[in-house]
Amino acid sequence: MPPSSKRAGFTLVELLVTIAIIGVLIALLLPAVQSAREAARRCSCINNLRQVGLAMHQYNDAHKRLPPAKPPGKDRYASAFVWLLPYLDEASRYGEYDFTVRPSEEPNTAITEVSLEVFLCPSMTFVGGDVPPGAASYGVSTGSGYNRDPFNRYTGEPNLFCHNGAIIDPSRGKTSVSGISAADGASKTFLVGELDYGLTNLYERSHGAAGPGGSTQWAFAYPGVTWASVVGKFNSDRIVTKLYEWETFRGDHPGGVEMLFVDGSARLIPTETPHETLEALAHASDGELVEIP
C-alpha cells in the first residue's frame, strides 16, 4: 500500500482569508503612519515659527522695536521678514537687498523669488499644484481689522494699514516686546501665524487678482501676502465674506492654525476659537485679558 501523501500549499479560502487579514492590518496601519508624519510636520512648522520668533526678539533687542510691516515710504513694500534675514542666517541675502526699490524689481528678484525653508510649513499644499516664486506659509499679525477698509473702524481716520497688531505700519508709530508685554501680555498677543494657499475659490472671488489658493510670499508687505489678521473666518478654506478670508490666518494642520506669540511661544489655535477671543489675541494694546484655548 503506497504511503499517504500530504497536501502542500494553501486552499483558495485560506489565501483569501490571509489577504483579508493583511488588508485590515494595512488599513489600520496607514492612519497611524499618516498621523506620525503630520506630527513631524507640525513640529517642523512650530520650529520654523520659533526661529522667526527668536529673530524677532533679536531685532527688537538691536533696534528697541519689532520690525516694521514695511519700510517707511509709499512704494517700497519690503516685508518685516526681509528685516529679519540677518537673524535667520541669511545675512548675505540681506546685504544684497536694495531697499530703494520694490521686492519685484532688480536686483531684488534674485533674492525674493527664492522660497526659504524657514518660511515654509511642510504641511502646506498648493491649490493647482504650482509653487509661486518666493512662496511662503506665514504672515505677521497686523491686528483685528481689515487692512483694505477705507477707514479705520477704531478711529474713523483713513486707514493706514496695520493699525493695532504686533507688527504695524511705521506711519502708525512702533511696537516693542516690552510695550506689548505691559499692555496685553506678550504670551497673549499674536505675532506671526500661518497664511496658506488653501482658499479654493480665491481666484474667482478676487477676479484673478490672486493666484489659486493664496498669495503668500515672504518678501512682500501687503494684505494677504505677509500681512494677516483675524477679520474674516479663522482657518477658512474659502472666501466667505468679501475678501476677508484672503488676509485671515489659516493653515494646513488638522484642527487649527499654528500661531507664534510675542513671547516666542508657539501653539495650535483651534479653528472653533470664538471670534472675540481671536480679536483680543490679535489686538496688541487693548488691555483685555483673555484665556487662550
From TrEMBL:
Residues covered by the DUF1559 domain: 34-273
Matching Pfam families: N_methyl (PF07963), SBP_bac_10 (PF07596)
PROSITE patterns, A to Z: PROKAR_NTER_METHYL (PS00409)
SUPFAM superfamilies: Pili subunits
Domain of life: Bacteria
Coiled-coil ranges (or none): none
Protein name, as recorded: DUF1559 domain-containing protein
Species: Posidoniimonas polymericola
